[in-house]
Amino acid sequence: MTFFEHLVELRKRLINSLLSIVIGAAVGWFIAPHFISAMTKPMTNALAENGLDPHLIVTHPAGYLNLLITTSIYIGIVIASPWVLYQIWLFVAPALYKHERSAITGFLCSTVFLFLAGISFGYFISLPYVLRFLVKISLQGPVRLLPDVNEYFDLTLLILLGLGLVFELPVLIFFLSLFGIVTPQFLIRNFR
Question: What was the pLDDT predicted at 164?
C-alpha cells in the first residue's frame, strides 16, 4: 500500500471503532442504572455495617445524570472493545509474519484475561475491605460521612483500574525479559 492508502485504511478503522463505541454507549445507557446499583453495593454494605444510612448522595442537580452518562460511555467502551481490537488487528495484521500473528493473539488473550482478573479481584476482594476501612476511619474524626456517588465512582474506578494494571505485571516482566532488561536470575535474586 502507498502512504495515502494506509491513511485511508486507518481512517476507516478509526471510524468503525468510534461508531462501535457510540453504539455501545447507547446500549450502555440502558444497562447503566443496573450497573450503578451493582457498583454501589460494596459502599452501601460498608455503610450499613457501621450503622450509617446506606445511601450515597449527589451534590448538584445533574449529579446522577452526569453519572449515568459517564457510566454509559464506560460501558460502551467495554462493549465495543472486542470490535475496536479487531479493527486494530485488521490494520496491523497485514504487516506481520504468520508467527508474529500467533504470538500477538496469545499476548492479547493473556492481557485481557489478566486485566479482567485484576478487576474481579478488586471488586470482590479488595474494594469491600478498603471501603470498610475508610468508613471506620471517617467515623473516628469530628466529621459526618456523606459519600457522594460521583466521588465514590472515581475512587472505585481508580482502585479497579489500578488493580487491573497491577495484574498486567506478568506481561510487563515477560517483555522486559524478552528485551534483556531483566533476567530470570535477577528476578529470582530480587524476588522479595
Answer: 92
Residue 1 DSSP symbol: -
Q: At 148, is the secondary structure helix, strand, or coil?
A: strand
Q: Considering just the CA atoms, what is the radius of gyration of the chain in Å? A: 22
User: What single DSSP character describes residue 190?
Assistant: T
Contact 10, 91 (CB under 8 A): yes
Number of structural domains (the chain) is 1
- Is residue 172 within 8 Å of 68, Cβ to Cβ? no
Q: What are the backbone angles phi and psi of residue 57, rounded to the nearest 5°? A: -115, 165
Cβ-based burial of 36 (10 A; exposed 0-12, middle 13-18, buried ≥19): middle
Cell readout for 67 is 453519572
- For residues 32 and 72, is the Cβ–Cβ distance under 8 A? yes
**Which residues form the domain of 71?**
3-189
Express each pLDDT in 83-132 by its tens digit: 998 888 888 888 778 877 777 788 888 888 999 999 999 999 999 999 99
SS3 content of the chain, % helix, strand, coil (to 5): 80, 0, 15
Element (H, E) at 138: helix 127-140
Cα distance between residue 57 and residue 74, in whole Å:
21
| Distance, C-alpha 171 to centroid of its chain | 17
